[in-house]
Specification:
five-stranded antiparallel beta sheet; alpha+beta; 17 strands; Beta-Lactamase; 16 helices; Heat Shock Protein 90
Length: about 600
């Protein structure tokens, strides 16, 4: 018994020094690894940070050059247009029928956002955007400053919808007399749209330090300090976590959306403007971390080799790895089966989508068929009423009055033909001959057509009409079609009201405006109101084409059809058409 014990004791003594040496070697390896990684991190971080800063400065120079080029290219435009004989002649004669088309022909060549020609009262008489015709700019800075200056004036003005507009303006003179102002809007917003696709944050500041262009919309209108201080609590927490976890970054210049960034400032040689770019340290971190990962991987391999040489558990680990490999192979086979099943499901889904597409086409054909009956419903109802009246008059031996009813039925048949032609024009717009139309007479004709429905529902009609006739240049049949659609929608909207009321107001100014207001429940979705096939009625009561067709008719006549909810309830529809003044009437 004593011999085995004595044989085991030397082996126990030899294991002690061996373990101590192993621990010492591992300690030295760890210290060497930490020193190497720390030194590499400092050197590579400085090198890659400087390289990133140089690239950011090059991008800033490119961005500022693009902005300066755009500003200088548009600066000469007002001086050239202010000498255009055609525009000067239009301002002197008051005939602007060709002025807007002339500006439109220039805008594509110039590359400006828009062009406007203002008369000496500040009213827009010609513009590349025809919706702005008739706008008043008497108090606008670009109009006032242009009248006071003999040179081209640059103006920066905040928009109500957000952002800034940048304009060049110059007064137009004829025989040393100011007759108008030409305004050129510079499209600097396109640079913001181009910057959206880059990783850097960009801001352009004017001479007062206010941000006028930025990739961050919430920065606009603020100073740089105010913009950078607007950090949410979540961003502050995330920033603290990143600052703790990221050990490769240098002290940041600023924080954007909770992330440390490098700030590079530059000057734009234009009215004291400056530009700032904010570049993340992500590229620096990725490059440094890649090298550090390789170093750590090398030290890890050394440590693994040391453990492999000293450990007798390698065989057990290999067996474990083999079992895991077998399990992975089983999982791989299972995944392949699942992939095959998914491919089959995708093929079935594609077939179902084709079937659904065909069903949608058939449904669209059904909706268009229902639209014809929807539009012809009112003339047919009126014809039924007139036929009943004519039958009664004939029984009472009053043929002259019955002939009047037959004439009205003939007019309704003509109207039905015009409606079907208009339904076809919904898909393919055609040209029609326009003539002066009295809006009061068109309204009276529409009310006459809707008289049976109004009496059946006992709708109270309130009309406010001007003393003088309001005349527009258009197609009376199509205008009456729009009015009938608006009245029919107002009647449908007041179905649930005990005392239905419809108020009609006709006014004239720069445009003829006819408003139809009801006391119904109002409009829920104003954005989709004029889209085809959108309707809030029950199935079978409407197809959703009435307002879409009406909007297209008004647009063809050079006007606009809008809708809103009234302050005291109900819906308000406004039809605006160009007024027929003496100049237009003489031209026609």
């Amino acid at each position: 018994m004593s011999e085995p014990t004595s044989e085991r004791l030397p082996r126990v003594r030899r294991s002690g020094p061996l373990g101590w040496r192993v621990r010492l070697a591992l300690g030295i390896l760890v210290l060497l690894a930490v020193a190497t990684v720390w030194t590499t991190n400092r050197l590579l971080t400085d090198r890659f940070t400087e390289s990133t800063r140089n690239r950011a400065e090059l991008r800033l120079a490119l961005y500022s050059g693009n902005i300066l080029s755009e500003l200088r290219r548009n600066a000469i435009v007002p001086q050239l247009l202010a000498r255009d004989p055609a525009l000067i002649g239009a301002l002197n004669s008051g005939d602007f029928s060709q002025s807007s088309q002339r500006l439109i022909s220039y805008v594509d060549e110039i590359g400006a956002a828009s062009l406007m020609l203002l008369d000496r009262d500040g009213r827009t008489v010609a513009a590349t955007d025809r919706n702005r015709l008739g706008e008043q700019h008497r108090g606008a800075p670009y109009f006032v400053n242009a009248l006071r200056s003999n040179t081209t004036v640059f103006t920066t003005q905040a928009r109500e919808a957000g952002g800034y507009s940048f304009t060049y303006s110059r007064r137009v003179e004829s025989q040393n007399t100011v007759i108008g102002v030409i305004v050129v809007e510079v499209d600097l917003a396109k640079f913001e749209r181009a910057w959206v696709g880059i990783t850097d944050a960009v801001a352009v500041l004017d001479s007062e330090g206010t941000i006028v262009l930025a990739t961050e919309p919430r920065w606009r209108g603020r100073t740089m300090d105010e913009a950078l201080e607007r950090q949410s609590p979540e961003s502050a927490i995330e920033r603290a976590i990143k600052a703790t976890a990221d050990w490769t970054a240098l002290p940041p210049d600023a924080y954007v959306r909770g992330e440390a960034v490098m700030q590079v400032d530059g000057r734009i040689p234009f009215r004291g403007w400056t530009m700032a770019t904010f570049t993340t340290y992500a590229s620096v971190r990725e490059k440094v971390n890649a090298v550090l990962a390789l170093e750590i991987m090398g030290f890890a391999l050394l440590a693994a080799l040391a453990f492999y040489a000293l450990s007798r558990k390698t065989a057990l680990r290999m067996a474990l790895f083999q079992r895991e490999s077998a399990e992975l192979r089983r999982l791989n086979a299972r995944l392949q089966r699942e992939i095959a099943e998914r491919e089959k499901v995708q093929k079935d889904l594609a077939s179902a989508e084709q079937t659904l597409e065909q069903s949608s086409k058939l449904a669209a054909l059904g909706e268009m068929s229902a639209a014809v009956s929807h539009e012809l419903n009112q003339p047919l109802a009126a014809m039924k009423t007139y036929l009943a009246g004519a039958r009664l008059l004939l029984r009472r031996n009053r043929p002259e009055e019955a002939m009047t009813a037959f004439h009205r039925i003939d007019d309704l048949i003509e109207r039905m033909g015009a409606i079907t032609r208009q339904l076809k024009s919904y898909a393919r717009k055609g040209q029609s001959q326009l003539s002066p139309v009295d809006m009061g007479e068109a309204l009276a004709s529409s009310l006459s057509m809707m008289e049976p429905q109004l009496k059946a529902r006992r709708v109270r009609i309130a009309k406010i009409l001007p003393d003088v006739p309001v005349r527009v240049m258009g197609d009376r049949m199509r205008i009456e079609q729009v009015l009938v659609n608006l009245l029919r929608n107002a009647i449908d909207a007041t179905k649930s009201e005990a005392h239905p009321e419809i108020e009609i107001i006709l006014a004239s100014g720069e445009t003829a405006v006819l408003s139809v207001r009801d006391n119904g429940h109002g409009i829920e979705d104003l954005d989709a109101l004029f889209e085809p096939f959108y309707t809030t009625k029950q199935p079978g009561d409407g197809t959703g084409l009435g307002l879409a067709i009406s909007s297209g008719i008004v647009a063809d006549l050079g006007g606009r059809l809008t809708a809103r909810n009234g302050s005291d309830g109900g819906a308000v529809f406004e039809m605006q058409l160009p007024i027929l003044n003496e100049t237009h009437q003489a031209a026609e």
